[in-house]
Amino acid sequence: MTDLTALKYTAEHEWIALDGDTATVGITEYAADKLGDVVFVELPAVGTAVTAATVVGEIESTKSVGELFAPLDGEVIAVNDAVVDDPSLVNADPFGAGWLVKLTVDPAAVDGLLDRDAYIALTGGAE
């Protein structure tokens, strides 16, 4: 299982796992629960330059349509095709097989993101 305390988070309910200058991005279990059953995921193309806080994709569920925001400036170096083919992975394993994109980023940029405690406070104690 992923060490959730090692991740960074955004107010838009995304998690970021940093490995060198590669950031793996997904949505949190809280966001997946709020969305309901995910039925469609649209992700940016590999090679796309993204800017923090801009919409880079879409997640549709039986309840609503949610936007995927870039948590950091960077370039898309990988997308999770398994999630595009089987969107239910976002609900089943949001911190594992349900990851969405990998970005090349400036590692120092994650310093401005939320830690686990701050994210839990943001969600009113929900994990």
TrEMBL record:
Against PROSITE patterns, the record matches this protein to:
BIOTINYL_LIPOYL, LIPOYL
UniProt keywords, alphabetically: Lipoyl
Enumerate the cofactors the protein uses: (R)-lipoate
An example Pfam family from this entry, by short name, is GCV_H
What does the record's cofactor remark say about binding?
Binds 1 lipoyl cofactor covalently.
Q: Which InterPro entries match?
A: 2-oxoA_DH_lipoyl-BS, Biotin_lipoyl, GCV_H, GCV_H/Fam206, GCV_H_sub, Single_hybrid_motif
Key word Coiled coil present = no
- Alphabetized CDD domains for the sequence: GCS_H
* Record flagged with keyword Transport: no
Q: Indicate where the modification N6-lipoyllysine is found in the sequence.
A: 63
Domain Lipoyl-binding positions: 22-104
Gene3D superfamilies from the entry? 2.40.50.100
Biological function: The glycine cleavage system catalyzes the degradation of glycine. The H protein shuttles the methylamine group of glycine from the P protein to the T protein.
The UniProt entry's sequence similarity note says: Belongs to the GcvH family.
Report quaternary structure and partners: The glycine cleavage system is composed of four proteins: P, T, L and H.
Protein name, UniProt field: Glycine cleavage system H protein
Species name for this entry?
Microbacterium jejuense
